[in-house]
Amino acid sequence: MVVVVGSINEDVELFVPRAPRPGETLTATRTSRHAGGKGANQAVAAARAGARVRMIGRIGADPAGARMLEALRSERVDTHAVAALPGVPTGTAYITVTADGENTIVLERGANARLSPADVAAERDALAGAAVMLAQLEVPIDTVTAAVCAARDAGVRAVVTLAPAQEVPAELLAGLDPLLVNEHEAAILLGGAGGGGGEGRDVAADAEECARRLLGLGPRSVVITLGAAGAVVADGSRVWRVPAVAVDEVVDTTGAGDAFAGALASALAGGARLADAVSAGMAAGAQAVGRAGAR
What is the span of the domain harbouring residue 230? Predict the structure, then answer.
């Protein structure tokens, strides 16, 4: 089983011809609403990849929350640990998608901000029965840290996507297997750890060395995704590259990283080696960019 600790959002997608410039107003060519949230997206991806999945999260007691809950249940995700909070809105992500499929996201956390370490502790038995605990950073950092520590104490494999990019405490990184980051997130983490590179660090140019440095922060393994350049994977014994899966057309990159993470977690829960799990994640991400929406 995969237990996902994370966010549940409604995505509002605004399709625009190009990214807006500072101070500029653009008219969207169309707008759509979808079920989203990094946590929920990853839970659905893991379920579609064949895993049994339990979601731990929070929604508002509002129509959007009801829609998000039904969307999870329709994908066979166990939602017994998803609570609807009165007086708090369901999280919302406002996403601009340009003609070439690239996106930017502004997030209103809503009920996601109320997911607490105590909520994770209440699901201790479910965590202990999991093969993989999967988390992201759209819920409070102390909650993710509590989930990682609980998984580690129970002997459960902990996987965290370091998104949205931000500095995190050392105890959150300790023992992750793997830590999942893209180039931007790796640069933030290395710069925040005293690497001096910050956001300006060219991770793609020296991804293998960056992966080794990230291992030095405490995870047991690291995966750096590099878009069309594939990924770099590092564990205690070696560093290697995994090629990207060819894509005929990029329609929408929204949610591609979540598809990658969910499929990877499902493969790990099924007993796959990390190398094979990364390949499964790459295939899922390639499928995701060919379709509109986060799922």
Answer: 2-289
CA atoms within 13 A on the CB side of 41: 26
- 258 a catalytic residue: yes
Q: For residue 212, is pLDDT > 50?
A: yes
**248/243: higher pLDDT:** 243
DSSP 126-186: HHHT-SEEEE-SSS-HHHHHHHHHHHHHTT-EEEEE--S-----HHHHTT-SSEEEEHHHH
Q: Bridge partners of 39?
A: none
Q: Largest alpha-carbon pair distance within the chain? A: 51
71 inside domain: yes
CATH of the domain at 130: 3.40.1190.20
Considering 11, 153, 258, 276, which one is annotated as catalytic? 258
Burial of 145 per CB tally in 10 Å (0-12, 13-18, 19+): buried
Asked whether residue 294 is assigned to any structural domain, the reply reads: no
Structural domains of the chain, count: 1
Q: Give backbone dihedrals phi and psi of 142, rounded to 5 degrees, phi first.
A: -65, -30
**What strand order describes the sheet that includes 30-36?**
30-36, 9-15, 91-97, 103-108
User: Smallest Cα–Cα separation from 130: which of 54, 214, 47, 213?
Assistant: 54
Provide the H-helix boundaries in the chain.
38-48, 63-74, 117-121, 124-128, 141-153, 170-173, 183-190, 207-215, 256-269, 274-289
Phi and psi at residue 214, to the nearest 5°: -65, -35
Domain contains 46 = yes
Alpha-carbon span 245 to 256, nearest angstrom: 13
Summary mean pLDDT of the chain: 92
